[in-house]
Specification:
Blueprint: E1 44-53, E2 56-65, E3 71-77, H1 85-96, E4 100-104, H2 119-125, H3 132-147, E5 151-161, H4 163-172, E6 180-184, E7 211-216, H5 224-236, E8 241-246, H6 263-279
Parallel strand pairs: 3-4, 3-5, 5-6, 6-7, 7-8
Antiparallel strand pairs: 1-2, 2-4
């Protein structure tokens, strides 16, 4: 049983098209030939829960060790495809390493991602309509939620994939409570809009925590020049940024359910990610 009710009575759910998470894998991405990694829940507490936010409840997946805690917190930021089995498995991998890992469904207000099959439609009708201010507020609220679920918010990190890598940069430029951040790919430059007014490259000088970026050299969707420029801007402002490029890797090289999966690069990137969190105090005693 959860420490607190999954959906506390009396809290609103106005305007949320997703009130639960995707079961199985996303319908919107091609599947690879190899079987996806399946991490067991032995010795873990795992549950689909709901994060209170001002206008309702965000569905979320939480995994942590079964003990008393408190446990260091890692907020896992999804791809564009929602919190499906791959993202849930990442949370369990982290929980087996001693973390409270939580992945909020950040697009719950905009669409039911469990029914969407066209990535371009997701980008056009969901991603482009997600305000950055709301995204950052939801991530901040997720930390407050995790602190009430045996999490130690003083040891806070984040890992994000694809679009979530972009959001890792933005959140790292926003929240001074973050100790460490890891971006698996994700663009740092994009066209500004009224609801997405500044991109990570433009804000790189304001980075508030050490950030590790893991990118594919064969990823045509992300400019390596932009990534290097963001690193240079952040470093010039006195911030710690390390960028690792896997020369032969495409976009999504960590996504073990997709044809883009590259096991050796994914394993190396994961080891670097965990080492980065631990180096900067996420996973070690305060």
């Amino acid at each position: 049983m959860a420490d607190t009710p999954s959906l506390p009575p009396g809290l609103p759910r106005r305007g949320f098209l997703m009130t639960g998470l995707i079961g199985g894998l996303t319908l919107a991405a091609a599947r690879g030939e190899a079987a996806p990694i399946k991490t067991n829940a032995d010795g873990l507490f795992v549950e689909e829960m709901h994060v209170p936010v001002p206008d309702g409840m965000l569905p979320a997946y939480l995994a942590r060790p079964a003990g008393a805690g408190p446990f260091p917190v890692v907020v896992v930021i999804e791809e564009i495809f929602g919190v499906h089995d791959y993202i849930k498995d990442v949370c369990r991998r982290l929980a087996h390493l001693g973390y409270l890992a939580v992945a909020p469904e950040l697009y719950a207000r905009l669409a039911d991602l469990s029914t969407m099959t066209d990535p371009q439609q997701i980008v056009r009708d969901v991603i482009a309509k997600a305000p950055d201010a709301q995204l950052l507020a939801d991530l901040d609220a997720t930390v407050d939620f995790a602190a009430g679920q045996r999490g130690d918010a003083a040891r806070l990190g984040t890992i994000g994939f694809c679009r979530g890598g972009r959001d890792v940069w933005l959140w790292g430029e926003h929240n001074p409570a973050l100790k460490a951040a890891v971006a698996f790919y994700g663009p740092v430059a994009s066209k500004d809009s009224p609801i997405q007014p500044r991109n990570p490259l433009e804000l790189a000088a304001t980075l508030k925590c050490p950030l590790l970026g893991l990118y594919g050299g064969e990823d045509p969707s992300i400019s390596q020049a932009d990534v290097k420029a963001a690193q240079a801007t952040a470093r010039a402002a006195g911030h710690t940024v390390e960028i690792v490029v896997y020369p032969d890797a495409p976009h999504g090289f960590h996504a073990d359910y997709r044809p883009s999966y590259r096991p050796a690069d994914a394993e190396d990137g994961w080891k670097r990610a965990i080492a980065w969190l631990r180096q900067y105090g996420v996973g070690q005693a305060v």
